[in-house]
Amino acid sequence: MATVRSELAKARGARVSDTSRWREAGLALLFLAPSIVAFVIFFYYPFEQLVLRGLYRNNIAGDNLRYVGAGQYGDVLGGDDFRQGVWHSVQFLIYTVPVGLLMGTVLAVVANRRLRGIKIFQTIFTSTVATSTAVAGFIFLALLNPSIGLIKSPDLLSQPSTAMFGVALVSMWQNLGLSFVIVLAGLQAIPQEVEEASTLDGHGPLRRFFRVTLPLISPVLLFLLVVLVINAFQAFAQIDAVTRPSGGPNGATETVVFKIFENRTPDRLGEGSVMSVGFFVITFLVTMGQFSFLERRVHYGE
Amino acid sequence: MASVTFDEVSKRFGTVTAVDGLSLSVVDGEFMVLLGPSGCGKSTALRMVAGLEQISDGELRIGDRVVNDVAPANRDVSMVFQSYALYPHMTVAKNIESPLLSKPTRVDGEGNGDGAPVARKLNKAERQERIDEAVRMLGLAEFVGRKPGELSGGQRQRVAVARAVVSRPAVYLMDEPLSNLDAKLRAQTRAELIDLHARLRTTIIYVTHDQVEAMTMADRVAIMADGNLQQVGTPREVYDAPANVFVAGFIGTPPMNTAAGAVTGDEVEVGPSRIPAPGSPAGTDVVVGVRPEHLTVSEAGTVRARVHHVEWLGHEAQVTVDLQGDTVDEVTAPLAPGSSPGRWVVRLGSGVAPPGAGDEVRLQVAAGAAHLFDAETGWRLGAEPDPDRSANDPVSVG
Hints:
Chain A is an all-alpha fold.
């Protein structure tokens, strides 16, 4: 009898009480602590400093810090410089993102077969992931060179109207590997039996692609879209590597990131900070928009 | 409606032969179950009918048509997959409609005046009619707007069957369709499939490794091992007269008891035990088989054994015994797969008090219950396969 009672007492103790809930919350906090600490040190604190820095202006030497207030945000974000940068970034995005999605899908569909030696092609298609931007830039400088390049004319990079496209070529090429790998992984996750069911249902290649394959890789394509958009917005090294002067000709390839980079001198840190914050907000909104608009049209398995 | 004929059909993957010269006729309207352990080639055989595997050798006919090189969609078959293979992004209704969209569907009674079936594309109203019919048949009305992810395993399974029946094909192919269901649902769905077959009377080829499914559903069972057909027959035939020790051991739970012995007079000698087998060719070495339910504990018994352990199941007791005698350790003859030499199981009804572990017992073999198999080939005496087939017919043991 005594043992029964002690067992009952134990069982009663197992009920969730307020004390144990607090204890649980404390434990959760403990487990979350490493990521919270890392986020605070490397993201929240610097971001807060950035936002605050946008409220100040200083002289050419970088001292004599003066508070100018939120007006600086209005001036910079409404200014021609920032708007031009955003437009160039959007141009770059329009050149690179659709091509990335399309080429990644095409290559992955072509290479997703059970053929002898297909691994070799899969490796080749993937290789651009491992190429540094400087190398990619150098390759395209050579390819696009008007006198020695394979693609001699027209000289894309020297015309303000075509320079952005020339730079985008570098990115398109570099994105191929990433897009290919991601879409291929998505294709290989489609259950074989579903493809076989589609075969038995008599779907031709096109119908199968649009009715079965594409919906099933849509989550992967959404992910790729988000990554490509962020990549496009963040493009800097390829612009720096292939344009002379950097961001040229005539500022035609100065994206927002490039403008921020140019505003890194001590006297313009305030402006640079404002642009950074503005650009963060744009990237954030675009990404949120992609998720909320597209998620409804995307099918995530079960 | 159509028959399916395998004529010496083989499938090789590189150097591995998955199906070896399979000859099997599935009669029009028959429920044929391909039964065997995993890796025996049963699924490969089914997939060759579907057209999902190329045929390496031989001829496959659906009805009178050789289909070796016919595209899967043009074979007039439909398939239920083990994983159901539903399209996860489509509603139940769209899933069921899918086979009607891209390939011609058979429509009865439209032939040029003679009422023969015609294959053509259906219009929207006709498709809806077919969907409604399949939905009604499988009780899916309340789920048509849902996606597979929102359904339980049993409901998904029914959608897969609905997608198979909607185009009214000549042959249904089912690849272990019940193996992802829990035991209770499996029994229920089994009954539903039997019912469905009774209503449709369409040829079904059904692959399973579960002998209970085979015994309960099949008109005929084809038992395969190592890519070879072992026996074809009604469930009763394969149970009552297994063609070889493999079938004897594969059909029945617990499996048939087997032991190596020699025929002397009207008996088989297994060590000190005697098993009555009238009319056997004297002097031959045999493997003798007795089903557990054909043994009783009796003073007059001629089989001497010691009880190893007893499993009491309520409605019956399964008594595991060790046969007495030294010969059992030196057995080279093919015994039933999975059995240990000299160890038999006796099935006693609930009315009989089982013996205790360690008891010496004598077992009585019911009259005419002994099965005799050739000690070398493992095939039933008097039922060896055709000589031209025996070459590639090694019986799998254990």
